[in-house]
Write a structure and sequence with these properties.
Rossmann fold; 6-stranded mixed sheet; 4-stranded parallel sheet; alpha/beta; 16 helices
Amino acid sequence: MSSMFRCIKCGRRYPIGTRLRCECGGLLEVEHEFASVNLTVFDRRLGSSAHPYHSGVWRFKELVHPDLDEAHIVSRPEGNTNLYAHRLLEEYVGARRLALKHEGENPTGSFKDRGMTVGISEARRLGARVVACASTGNTSASLAAYAAQAGLSCVVFIPEGEIAYGKLAQTLAYGAKVLQMRGNFDDAMHIVQRASAELGFYLLNSVNPWRIEGQKTIIFELLQQRGWRPPDWIVVPAGNLGNTSAFGKALRELEAIGLIGEMPRLAAIQAEGANPFYRLWVKGEEALTPAKPKTVASAIKIGAPVSWRRALKAIRATGGVVEQVSDQEIMDAKAVVDRSGVGCEPASAASVAGAKKLVETGVIDPGEDVVCILTGNLLKDPDSTICYHTGALDGITPRFPNQPHAIEPELSSVQEALCRFANEDRIRS
């Protein structure tokens, strides 16, 4: 095969298979020997209805898993997510050329579907019978859906009481065996790795390098949508750091094979209450110190991200930065994204809040071309949205509330309520 596993820590190579870590303990990544790749091949597949090229992942098969037999591919399809621009968002962030790429438009409502189609397809190639993951919600929803489609058994480990109901509902509905653990995501991640090693599960967290290969396609598709012209900045929420890692790998590979001439800069944005990667970055350290995470943005509520080495490589390779934002900044940014008619879950809005902060601090010039990645759908966590607008989120004072008003079934009551809405709009403006 033209693809191998390579350790990101010591560089040792292995044939692709079920191994996910090097003997030295380092994570593995997929190293491809790319044949001649022409962008016109990918452009010709746009709008195709043929399996698997109708997928926004498998359209780029030669850059993702070139040796995989198409008979093994499990696709819903995923990808083909849109770019959005809105005057309200540009004014809020302070960037005149701002776009949002909305990965919440994937089949299960998050970017995880891109990595999962590749991971499940590889599981099928390997003959796996049981797949597993630890999750704060989106990974479990995606894995459960793709496992069901592939006819595989699925076991997910979730931190009890720390998963939004929208995500838990998906996981249960798709038939996964759900194990609710006392503790946080990092505890669940520890036990799922042990269980996978000892019980023979095929692990599909982002320690699995095929997940990263699928998530690379966010970059490929973004660039294709822009006529293969890179923006100046790509801003991404940062939790377990799989996307940051994937984006860096995608850009390095595109540059190496001559498909892009300019490298956009990556900005990884962590929640202030779950910021071990940010602390590593600002202190200039070479090893990550885990933290006990606390943030309203449950999808990035991770204190010991497994992909930090790959992510650090990505930030350095692109001349990028790492920033943190508070829950207040996240939820206010989310309100503006929602009000623009796009909508997202809280963790997604970290990218927009981060872009605003980077413009305010002079890191991003207001005239630069910026793309923020939204990672999940608004309906993934509706409770946080309602609690924000009704002022029920602890420690957060909503800058952009939109409270419902109770009325009597009378026209005069309707008119009074509309007047109150008008007064509220004048106060906010």
